[in-house]
Amino acid sequence: MAQGADDQCPDADPVAVAREIALRRLTVRARSRAELEADLTRRNVPEEAATAVLDRFEEVGLVDDADFARMWVTSHPGVSARRLRDGLRAKGIDGEHIEAAVGAVTSEDDLDSARALATKKLRSLGNQIDVVRDRRLAGALARRGFGSSVVSQVLREVRAGEL
């Protein structure tokens, strides 16, 4: 189709339009089925055409929510399991795929990620007084989705000079 999807003709084949939009979006990065459905809805593609195209894309492996979830988890190092779950839920991934992808992240992995983030953050804090350092570290860790027990453990290690 030579025209952009925004300029589609009223008599254009909706399946061809849906296919072009979805392929263009997948060229940029992998996307979940829900993300593609939302894109197609925003572009006024009829639901039947969107469903037909997305079903076909799933059949041939262009859209795979389980694979997308695994890639999402591996491409977000230093992020807590809770934050990964929230991100995948926002992408429209179902709970089964989320748990399969995030389930491999253990509490020890979360603690290791928090330690790595704290070590990196400590370099930028310089010679801050302990209270300021702790507050800034705790904030950085909390923003990445680490729970209070992980934050407390990392702060204890920082105070003990272990990091």
What's this model, at a glance?
This protein is mostly helical.
Structural commentary:
The protein is an all-alpha fold and 163 residues long. The chain is 69% helix and 0% strand. It has nine helices and no strands. It has helices spanning 14-28, 33-42, 47-60, 65-74, 81-90, 95-102, 107-125, 130-143, 148-159. The radius of gyration is 22 Å and the shape is elongated.
Spatial extent as radius of gyration: 22 Å
Low-confidence stretches: 1-7
Beta-strand residue percentage: under 5%
Shape label = elongated
The DSSP helix count reads 9
Largest sheet: none
Overall average residue pLDDT: 89
Separation, N- and C-terminal Cα atoms: 57 Å
Helix and strand succession?
HHHHHHHHH
Secondary structure elements and pairings:
Elements lengths: L13 H15 L4 H10 L4 H14 L4 H10 L6 H10 L4 H8 L4 H19 L4 H14 L4 H12 L4
Helix pairs in contact: 1-3, 2-3, 4-6, 5-6, 7-8, 7-9, 8-9
Name the features:
disordered N terminus; single chain; 163 residues; mainly alpha
